[in-house]
C-alpha cells in the first residue's frame, strides 16, 4: 500500500491511498468468506465450498460492493495507524480508480486532532479558597424551616404580606399564545418572599379566596427559561385559598422537629456544617474549573471544526427534546429568541470550542500521567448511579455500552483533574 499525504491545515489532512493485488487479495478472500454461507454451490454444504467456486456463483455486483466496503475500511485504518493520525469525525472518501480485486486508489479527506502542546501543568499553582458560612445564612435556613413547619390557617380576608396563597395560573405571550413554563395548578406562593417573578406577588396583595386576577409582568433577562427572558406575559390567576402562616417559636422543641438534634444550638451547628460542606463543594468545583482553564489557556491545540460542529449538533438535539417536553417547537423557540438556527449554533460555538479543547488537553495529560480506569472503578460508579435512579428505564440505560463509555470518560476526567489539583497545591 502506498500513501501520499497532504497537510491542508493543522487539523485537516488529505490521504491518497493506492493498493495493489498483494494488498487486496486477503481482503477479497475475507469477502468471499462472508458470502460462503449465503451462496448455494452444488455439491457442497453451506459454508464449505472453496473460495474460487463461491466467486463463480455469487452476484458480481454484490461481491464488488462488499469488497470495496471492506477494503476501504481496512486500508483507511491501516493508513491512519501508519501516519499516526487521530481522526476527528467521519472521513470523506472518494474512489479514484478500481480494477476489481487488483488495483484500488482512493482519496480520504479527514479532520484530525493535531499536535497538542501541553503547558508545564506540574508547575501551575492556584490557591484554594475556604468556604465560610455567615450567621445570616444560618438564620435564613432557620427561617425556611420555620415556614416549612408553620401551621396554615385558612382565612376569609384580603391577603397580606406573610400569607400563603394557593393559585391556579396560566400565562400567554404577547401574541396571545400559551407561554411554555408559565402555568401552574394549586401552586403555593408566600407573599413577601419575592421568590416569584418580580411584580407578580404585588398584584395578589389584598386578594381573597375565589378572586380572579389578570395582569402583565415582564420576565427578568436572566430568567431560568430562555424563551421567557425579557418577555412580557399576561397572567390569568385564580386564587383558590388564602392561608395565614403561623410560624413556630424558635426553641428546643422546634429544633427537635426540624432535625436530628435536641437544642437550637445543635440545630444551628448542624445547619452551619451542612452549609459549609455545600459551599466548599461549590468552591472546589469552581477551583477545578479555574485550574483547568489556566492550563488550557497556556496549552495549544488546533481544535477540529468538525468535532465542534458535532458537539453543537448533539447539544441542539438535546435542547429540542427538552422543548418537546415543554410543549414548544424548535421554530417557536428560535422565534422567541429572535434568532435564526445558524445564529443559535454560532452562539454556542465559543463555549463548545473551549470544552472540546479542554477535553483533548485533559486526555493528553491522562495519557502522559498513565491514568487509567479499572473495571472495578467503573462498576462501582455504575452501581452508585443505579442507586440514585430507581426508574427501570434509567437503570437499563446505564447498562448500555455507549453510556458506560461516557461514564468511564467522566471518571477519567475526574481522576485527571484530581491529579492536576494535587500538583497545583503542592
Protein architecture, described:
The protein has 426 residues and is of the alpha+beta class. Among the domains are: 2-111, 2-Layer Sandwich (Alpha-Beta Plaits); 151-246, Chitinase A, domain 3 (Roll), CATH 3.10.50; 369-426, no CATH class. Helices cover 49% and strands 19% of the residues. The protein has twelve helices and nine strands. The protein has helices at 21-36, 51-57, 60-83, 135-149, 252-258, 264-298, 305-325, 330-337, 341-368, 375-388, 392-398, 401-425; strands at 2-9, 12-20, 92-99, 103-111, 151-154, 164-172, 178-190, 212-218, 232-246. The strands form two sheets. Strands 5, 6, 7, 8 and 9 form a five-stranded antiparallel beta sheet that branches. The radius of gyration is 32 Å and the shape is elongated. The mean pLDDT is 91.
Question: In terms of topology, how is this protein built?
Answer:
Layout: E1 2-9, E2 12-20, H1 21-36, H2 51-57, H3 60-83, E3 92-99, E4 103-111, H4 135-149, E5 151-154, E6 164-172, E7 178-190, E8 212-218, E9 232-246, H5 252-258, H6 264-298, H7 305-325, H8 330-337, H9 341-368, H10 375-388, H11 392-398, H12 401-425
Antiparallel strand pairs: 1-2, 2-4, 3-4, 5-9, 6-7, 6-9, 8-9
Helix pairs in contact: 1-3, 4-6, 7-9, 9-12, 10-12
Amino acid at each position: 500500500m502506498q500513501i501520499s499525504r497532504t497537510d491542508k491545515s493543522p487539523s485537516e489532512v488529505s490521504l491518497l491511498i493506492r493498493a495493489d493485488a498483494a494488498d487486496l487479495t486477503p481482503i477479497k478472500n475475507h469477502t468471499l468468506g462472508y458470502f460462503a454461507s449465503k451462496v448455494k454451490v452444488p455439491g457442497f454444504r453451506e459454508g464449505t465450498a472453496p473460495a474460487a467456486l463461491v466467486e463463480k456463483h455469487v452476484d458480481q455486483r454484490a461481491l464488488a460492493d462488499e469488497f470495496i466496503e471492506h477494503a476501504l475500511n481496512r486500508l483507511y485504518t491501516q493508513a491512519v495507524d501508519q501516519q499516526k493520525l487521530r481522526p476527528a469525525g467521519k472521513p470523506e472518501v472518494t474512489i479514484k480508480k478500481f480494477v476489481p480485486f487488483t488495483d484500488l486508489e482512493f482519496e480520504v479527506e479527514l479532520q484530525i486532532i493535531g499536535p497538542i502542546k501541553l503547558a508545564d501543568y506540574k508547575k501551575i499553582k492556584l490557591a484554594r479558597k475556604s468556604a465560610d458560612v455567615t450567621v445570616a445564612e444560618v438564620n435564613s435556613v432557620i427561617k425556611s424551616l420555620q415556614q416549612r413547619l408553620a401551621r396554615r390557617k385558612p382565612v376569609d380576608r384580603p391577603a397580606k404580606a406573610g400569607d400563603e396563597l394557593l393559585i391556579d395560573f396560566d400565562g400567554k405571550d404577547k401574541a396571545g399564545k400559551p407561554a411554555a413554563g408559565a402555568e401552574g395548578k394549586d401552586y403555593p406562593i408566600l407573599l413577601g418572599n419575592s421568590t416569584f417573578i418580580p411584580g407578580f406577588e404585588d398584584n395578589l396583595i389584598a386578594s381573597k379566596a375565589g378572586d380572579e386576577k389578570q395582569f402583565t409582568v415582564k420576565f427578568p433577562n436572566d430568567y431560568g427559561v430562555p424563551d421567557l427572558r425579557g418577555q412580557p406575559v399576561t397572567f390569568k390567576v385564580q386564587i383558590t385559598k388564602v392561608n395565614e402562616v403561623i410560624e413556630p417559636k424558635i426553641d428546643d422543641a422546634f429544633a427537635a422537629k426540624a432535625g436530628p438534634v435536641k437544642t437550637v444550638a445543635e440545630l444551628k451547628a448542624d445547619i452551619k456544617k451542612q452549609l459549609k460542606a455545600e459551599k466548599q463543594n461549590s468552591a472546589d468545583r469552581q477551583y477545578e474549573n479555574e485550574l483547568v482553564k489556566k492550563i488550557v489557556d497556556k496549552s495549544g491545540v488546533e481544535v477540529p471544526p468538525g468535532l465542534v460542529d458535532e458537539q453543537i449538533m448533539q447539544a441542539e438535539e438535546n435542547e429540542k427534546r427538552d422543548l418537546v417536553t415543554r410543549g414548544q417547537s424548535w421554530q417557536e423557540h428560535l422565534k422567541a429568541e429572535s434568532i435564526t438556527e445558524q445564529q443559535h449554533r454560532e452562539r454556542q460555538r465559543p463555549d463548545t470550542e473551549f470544552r472540546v479543547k479542554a477535553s483533548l488537553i485533559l486526555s493528553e495529560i491522562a495519557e502522559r500521567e498513565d491514568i487509567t480506569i479499572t473495571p472495578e472503578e467503573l462498576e462501582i460508579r455504575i452501581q452508585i448511579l443505579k442507586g440514585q435512579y430507581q426508574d427501570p428505564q434509567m437503570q437499563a440505560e446505564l447498562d448500555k455500552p455507549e453510556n458506560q463509555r461516557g461514564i468511564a470518560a467522566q471518571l477519567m476526567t475526574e481522576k485527571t483533574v484530581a491529579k492536576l489539583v494535587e500538583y497545583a497545591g503542592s
